[in-house]
Design brief:
The protein is mostly helical. The two termini are 23 Å apart.
Length: 145
């Protein structure tokens, strides 16, 4: 069994599950995540939101356009700012994010408990692994490059 494959497959499964739950709400998973990010960091630019979503600026622009059209986000860019957006949730966007968060719930925690895994311990382990994977290391002479 390969850890990288299993983690990747789990994330794909969770993403598909979230897409199915959010579809009747008129949101994609990326749109929902954008709402969560903007809730936590109001005033982000489109470029910063793209990095946080892990998508290109063009893809993030599509997400933002959909959220603007739905009245879930506003652009508070100062005049003369050009293409720079300062994005904020509207009250409707905040309500939609809260509602969708409740729909998505904590079922992964429940799934972990069902197979005898402490969700907090697993989350801590995954965070430590993720932090390690994100570090940039130069291979030593004894390590293959």
């Amino acid at each position: 069994m390969d850890l990288a494959y299993e983690l990747h497959d789990l994330v794909r499964t969770l993403d598909r599950w979230a897409e199915q739950i959010l579809r009747p709400e008129g949101l994609s998973y990326n749109q929902y995540v954008a709402l969560v990010i903007l809730h936590e960091h109001p005033g982000l630019t489109g470029r910063t939101l793209a990095r946080a979503l892990g998508v290109t600026e063009a893809a993030a622009s599509g997400v933002v356009k959909a959220l603007l059209a739905a009245g879930l986000v506003t652009d508070h860019s100062p005049s003369g700012a050009g293409n720079r957006r300062e994005l904020h949730l509207t009250p409707s966007g905040s309500e939609k994010m809260t509602h969708c968060s409740a729909l998505l719930g904590h079922s992964v925690d429940d799934n972990a408990r069902a197979v005898g895994i402490d969700p907090q311990a697993l989350a801590t382990t995954i965070r430590a692994l993720h932090d390690e994977v994100r570090t940039i290391r130069t291979p030593t002479e004894s390590e293959p490059s």
